[in-house]
Specification:
6-stranded parallel beta sheet
Length: 205
C-alpha cells in the first residue's frame, strides 16, 4: 500500500518506522495565555531541538503540524515568515526550525489528524511509531495522541518536550496519556530510536 501511495504522492518512503511530530510550536504566542505559555514552551523547545537533531541523524522524518488560525489563504511558508516577524516566534524558529527536508501540515482543529492529510503521509512514510511533542500537553497534544492511538500507532510523548499553560494540567495530561493510550512519557534523553524498518508489519493493531 505504501508503495502505491508513494507513486501517487511523490513522497519517499522513510528509512525509519518512527516519525517526530512537532505541534503548534511555530507561533508568535500572541494569543490568550501566550505570555504564560511561552517560557514553558521555550524550555520544551530547548530539549526538542536536541531530540530533533537526533531524529534527523537517525533518518526519522520531522513533521511540523500547526494551527492555521483560519488563515486559509496562507501556505506554510507564508505562515512561518509571518511568525518570524515576532520576537517570540523568531526565538522558537531559531531553536527548532523548520529546515529543508522537514514536512509540514496546517490543521484547522486541535487534533493533528482532523481534516488533514497526516494519516496518508504517515502511511506513505511507513510509520508505525509516533513521537508527539509541542503545545499544549492538555489540548492539541492530548487530542492528537488520542487520535493516533485510535489508528493503531505506538506513542511516545516526551515529558520534557511538551508544555501547558498550567503545570498541573501538563502533568495530569501526561498521566492520562500514559494510562489510557499507553504513551511512553519518559524524558527525551531516554528515548531511543528504533532500527529503520522496511515494512509496516510491526504496526500495532
Amino acid at each position: 500500500m505504501a508503495k502505491n501511495l508513494d507513486k501517487i504522492t511523490g513522497v519517499s518512503e522513510s528509512r525509519s518506522n518512527t516519525a517526530l511530530l512537532i505541534l503548534d510550536m511555530i507561533s508568535a504566542f500572541d494569543f490568550e495565555d501566550g505570555e504564560t505559555l511561552f517560557p514553558k514552551a521555550l524550555r520544551a523547545a530547548q530539549n526538542l531541538s536536541k531530540l530533533r537533531d537526533r531524529a534527523r541523524s537517525a533518518a526519522v522524518p520531522v513533521l511540523f503540524v500547526n494551527d492555521n488560525f483560519g488563515k486559509w489563504e496562507q501556505d506554510f511558508g507564508e505562515f512561518v515568515r509571518s511568525v518570524r516577524d515576532s520576537e517570540k516566534g523568531s526565538q522558537m524558529i531559531d531553536l527548532i526550525g523548520p529546515e529543508r527536508g522537514d514536512y509540514h501540515i496546517l490543521k484547522p482543529q486541535r487534533s493533528a489528524f482532523y481534516a488533514t492529510p497526516l494519516e496518508v503521509l504517515l502511511l506513505t512514510l511507513n510509520v508505525s511509531d509516533l513521537i508527539i511533542t509541542g503545545v499544549t500537553t492538555d489540548i492539541c497534544v492530548l487530542f492528537s495522541a488520542h487520535d493516533a492511538y485510535m489508528r493503531g500507532y505506538k506513542l511516545h510523548v516526551p515529558s520534557d518536550c511538551t508544555a501547558a499553560v498550567e503545570d498541573a494540567h501538563h502533568e495530569s495530561a501526561l498521566e492520562f496519556m500514559a494510562r489510557v493510550v499507553y504513551a511512553k512519557t519518559r524524558s527525551s534523553s531516554e528515548l531511543k530510536f528504533q532500527t529503520p524498518a522496511r515494512s509496516r508489519s510491526g504496526r500495532a493493531a
